[in-house]
Amino acid sequence: MSSRAEAKATVGDISNDGNLNMAQVQTSRKGFCSVRHGLAFTLYICNFLIYTQKMSMSIAIPAMVNNTVLSSPANASRERPPTDSQDNQNETSKEFKAVAPMYDWSPEIQGIILSSLNYGSFLAPIPIGYVAGIFGAKYLVGVGLFISSVLTLFIPLVTDAGATFLIVLQIVQGIFQVIVNTSQYSIWVKWAPPQEKSQLISIAMSGSALGSFIILLVGGLLCQTVGWPYIFYIFGGIGCACSFLWFPLVYDDPANHPFISTGEREYIVCSLAQQDYSSDWSLPIKAMIKSLPLWSILVSYFSEFWLFNIFVAYIPTYINSVLQVNLRDSGILSALPFLVGSICMILGGLLADFLLSRKILRLVTIRKLFTAMGVIFPSVLCVSLPWVSSSHITTMAFLVLFTAFSSLSEAGSFVNILDIAPRYVTFLRGLLQVSYHISGAISPTVTGIFLSQDSEFGWRNIFLLSAAINTSGLVFYLIFGQAEVQEWAKEQTITHL
């Protein structure tokens, strides 16, 4: 990875060269067929694979247990005759027994299993982010993807040994998924021009939504035909194969890329020349602890992912149990919101960069506006879900709108860390991952407890609590969030541990 001094020297050469082809630079700036957009697509595939593995348990667990459908209130169950959907579920259950083993897991155990990917994950992001900022992300991401894929292949075998062994495996797998999620941000430190940060990161991260869409779409069908183990075999195998393509395709720095055009390299270097993205072994820990803009991002991350983690982990179970549809149809219906979310995430990033490049709104206004839209509308929608559960169409419309609006946060508080402290972006990305995984470890577990205690009003209470947490984080972010580089993150500020 080239040093900052080399970058400045390159910029100096460009500035002093009167023969610089500015048309070529402008072409590199505007084109989507560029190396940096190709890198975004490569990370898109990487995030797609990680989320197919992360979401595999969510679609498989209704097929893995004997009593996924929550029992209805006693009076209702006596008065209401069996419906076609209930008959379909009985037929589906018989099919599962024929093709794959099933387990007697209580709602509490299911909640723990769905949360277990996050249990050990909050320990890893900070050291990973620190190391990635110094040595680059290429090998960390590639190795993390490969090992996560290998562990996915072993899930069916380990599940037969018991729920405890499955939980332990998922804890280890979650740590390697953290390596991928945390390390990849250091790539954009050297590759993303300031006015393209939102779109490049949004393109890359939208792979997670498409991965969720595909696994839910295909997973239900696999469960009913060949059995739930093949979800893990297929997507674990694809991940292993693609991880080997990562290493020859990705480079930490445009200066070292063998196929990038001169115009694009010059454009990226010129764009980043005025910003300090250099890594430093010393960290201004005290200043970070006192930084309210940093805390506002961390709190926003925790609160927004509290609700989103419940949505990701439980949407197949919610549709299967509340709407009373079989798992195949549940998978298809569960997948639709994530497809819309993937598209809206990309469009949101493009819109944010458009508003910034045309100077229609200030950067801080853009970040807060997109965050507000990504919190307020999903909170209202989720609170309204229990009151529209009698209508399949309305429920699905609400779930689709939920992911559509939630995806806008990717161009808001989620990318804000690159604005306030580009110098320490990978370390701070690690902090964000800690916040995310603590939220992910708690929220599905709490959901399982709520559902086991009150099957009739459990979902209503879950959504009310989640909306309250979500909006509280938004208020904190709107008050203290900023978008300019903080004093402690500037080059002239030297603060040691």
Offer a quick outline of the entry:
The chain has about 500 residues and is an all-alpha fold. About 75% of the residues lie in helices and about 0% in strands. Helix 3 packs antiparallel against helix 12 and helix 16 (about 325-355) packs antiparallel against helix 17 (about 365-385).
Structural commentary:
By secondary structure, the chain is an all-alpha fold. Helix content is 74%, strand content 0%. It has 21 helices and no strands. Helix 15 runs antiparallel to helix 16, helix 16 packs antiparallel against helix 17 (363-384) and helix 20 packs antiparallel against helix 21. The protein is globular. The two termini are 25 Å apart.
Strand-helix topology:
Blueprint: H1 4-16, H2 22-30, H3 35-64, H4 74-79, H5 84-99, H6 107-115, H7 125-135, H8 138-161, H9 163-183, H10 185-191, H11 197-225, H12 229-249, H13 262-272, H14 285-290, H15 292-322, H16 327-357, H17 363-384, H18 392-406, H19 417-420, H20 425-453, H21 458-480
Helix pairs in contact: 2-13, 3-8, 3-9, 3-11, 3-12, 3-15, 6-20, 7-9, 7-20, 8-9, 8-12, 9-20, 11-12, 11-16, 15-16, 15-20, 15-21, 16-17, 16-18, 17-18, 17-21, 20-21
Number of strands: 0
Radius of gyration: 23 Å
N-to-C order of helices and strands = HHHHHHHHHHHHHHHHHHHHH
Main sheet makeup: none
Unreliable segments of 5+ consecutive residues: 1-27, 68-98, 493-497
Q: What is the distance, rounded to the nearest whole angstrom, between the alpha carbons of the first and last residues?
A: 25 Å
| Shape assignment | globular
Query: How large is the share of residues in beta strands?
Result: under 5%
Mean pLDDT: 79
- Summarize the amount of helix as a percent range: over 70%
Helix count?
21
Sheet/helix structural class: mainly alpha
